[in-house]
Design brief:
The protein has 257 residues and is α+β, with helices and mostly antiparallel strands. It has 3 domains: 59 residues, no CATH class; 100 residues, 3-Layer(aba) Sandwich (Trna Endonuclease, Chain: A, domain 1), CATH 3.40.1350; 57 residues, no CATH class. It has 9 helices and 13 strands. The strands form 4 sheets. Strands 7-8-9-10-11 form a 5-stranded mixed β-sheet, sandwiched between helices. A 4-stranded antiparallel β-sheet has the order 2-3-4-5. Strands 1-6 form a two-stranded antiparallel ribbon. α3 runs parallel beside α4.
């Protein structure tokens, strides 16, 4: 999810810590060849010959990155739109509890800048939102208070995403481990599987998607296979069909029943 830019770097990694003189400095010989020279007075590191490709900086492909994490996090992805320096809008939440809320991604390395982005979001948004960031290390008391005042959710990606044994990116479970994805029902059998479940549990189809925290439109997207199987909405339905209703769920009985 990194892409090469046309910007040349100025330093090259050092194999060890050298009293603050390294990393190695990149020198352009203006003939297509570059070298990385040790900046330690004692030349502790070997010089390295580089090509232009070696010295080009890389940057995060925000579109590819957010599209990949959207499913496990329950986000209806949209092509990222820059909303500030280090801030993008990336979609709409479909997760239970934040459904319909806009989702933003903040990528900044300075705590003060992060607080400024959150303050701007709180001013610009007149309703709750979801804010994603790589880590919670920039989330100070002041930032938490701002988010709570807007009843908005902060999501630390390092705490919410992990890799399953299959190598698939998944939402991390309640105990902190990478959750196991539930095997997807073949599309051609989904309607029949839902009817069979409803008959076995003496419930309505509506009860299945309500227990999964999924609205009717997303249920039919699952039925028709128009959503990726790793989306949280699809996984929620599959878990209900595989494991039954959770103990905490109580069916909403129609009037007169």
């Amino acid at each position: 999810m990194l892409r090469i830019t046309d910007k040349e770097g100025t330093v090259y990694p050092c194999p060890g810590k050298q009293m603050g003189y390294c990393p190695r400095r990149i020198v352009d010989h203006l003939d297509g060849e570059y070298v990385a020279l040790c900046q330690d007075p004692h030349q502790s590191c070997e010089r390295v010959t580089l090509t232009r490709r070696d010295v080009l900086q890389q940057e995060l492909d925000v579109a590819a990155f957010t599209k990949r994490i959207a499913g496990p996090l329950g986000i209806r992805w949209q092509s990222p739109v820059v909303r500030g320096n280090g801030l993008w809008s990336v979609g709409v939440s479909e997760a239970q509890g934040t459904r319909g809320q806009p989702v933003f991604l903040a990528l900044v390395t300075d705590t003060q800048r992060f607080a400024g982005l959150v303050q701007r979001l709180v001013i610009d948004q007149d309703r709750p939102f979801v804010l994603l960031a790589p880590t919670k290390r920039r989330c100070t008391v002041e930032v938490v208070e701002l988010l709570q005042a807007r009843q908005s959710l902060f999501v630390s990606l390092e705490e919410r995403l992990g890799l399953a044994e299959s190598g698939q990116l998944v939402a991390i479970g309640e105990k902190g481990e990478a959750g196991q994805t539930t095997a997807a029902t073949p599309v051609a059998r989904r309607a029949a599987a839902a009817r069979s479940f409803a008959k076995r549990y003496k419930c309505r189809i509506k009860d299945i998607h309500e227990a999964a925290g999924v609205d009717q439109s997303d249920y039919y997207r699952w039925i028709n296979g128009t959503r990726p199987d790793d989306y949280s909405t699809c996984q929620g339905i599959e878990r209900i069909l595989a494991e039954g209703f959770p103990a905490s769920w109580r069916r909403k009985r129609p009037a007169g029943e």
